C-alpha cells in the first residue's frame, strides 16, 4: 500500500516539475526558413524579459502535424497562412492571436562554376549540370512556391526528373552546399545569413508564385500563455521588423 502511495506522490511531483519547467521557458515552433531571424529575435527577447526561448525548427507541415497531436508549443511561426488558419478553425489556437508577421521571397541559387538563366527561370533545364533542390511542396510553403514558379515559366516538365526534395527549405539548401545539387530554389533569407553556401543567386519575380505570407499564432494549449502573448507583441514591434528586413523579409506593414 505504501509503495502505491509513494509512486502516486512521485508522479505528482514529476508532473508538477514538468509543468513548472515548461512555464519557465517559451517554446516556439518555427518554419526552417525563419530560423536565423528568430534566433536573433529570441536573443533580444531574452535580454528584454529574462525568459529563455526554446526554438524547434522544421517544415511547416511537420509542425502542424505535431501541434494537432498535442505538441506543447506556445507559439507557432509558420511559413504560410494555411496551417495557422486550419489550427484556428479547429479551435487549437487562442482567438485573436493570429497575425501575419513577414512575407518571404524566393531565390534561385547556383553552386560556384554553375550558370544562372539570364531572365528568371527561362531555360533553367539547360543550366542544370546536376540536381535541382527544392523543399517538399506538400510540407514546405517555399517548396510549393518553387513548384508554382517552375510551372508558371513552363519549366516544371523539363526539370522534374532532376529535382531532389528536402523535407524543408534548409535541407534543400544543404543539398546544394554538399554538392548533391547544382542549383536550388530556396528562401531569399538564406542569402543574408552568415555561413551561407558559396555561389551566385538571383531573386525571382514575385508574380511567379503566390505570395509567401507567413502567419504566427498562439496555441490554445500553450504552457506559458503570458510569455506567448508578450512574444507575439515583441514580434510585431519596429525593432523586430528591422531584424526581419536584414534577413530579406518584408514586414507586414510593408507588404503590398
Quick description:
This protein is an alpha/beta fold and 256 residues long. 39% of the residues lie in helices and 20% in strands.
Task: Present the secondary structure layout.
Blueprint: H1 2-23, E1 26-31, H2 35-49, E2 53-58, H3 60-68, E3 75-77, H4 82-89, E4 99-104, E5 106-110, E6 132-135, H5 141-152, H6 156-159, E7 163-166, H7 169-177, E8 183-187, E9 200-203, E10 212-218, H8 225-235, H9 238-246
Parallel strand pairs: 1-2, 1-3, 6-7, 6-8
Antiparallel strand pairs: 3-10, 4-10, 5-8, 5-9
Query: Strand percentage, roughly?
Result: 15-25%
Strand tally is 10
Instruction: Note the total helix count.
Output: 9
Arithmetic mean pLDDT: 90
What does this structure look like?
This protein is α/β, with parallel strands linked by helices and 256 residues long. The chain has helices at 2-23, 35-49, 60-68, 82-89, 141-152, 156-159, 169-177, 225-235, 238-246; strands at residues 26-31, 53-58, 75-77, 99-104, 106-110, 132-135, 163-166, 183-187, 200-203, 212-218. Helix 2 links the parallel strand 1 and strand 2. Residues 12-22 have low confidence and may be disordered.
Give a quick set of tags describing it:
D-Maltodextrin-Binding Protein, domain 2; 2 domains; five-stranded mixed beta sheet; 10 strands; 20% strand
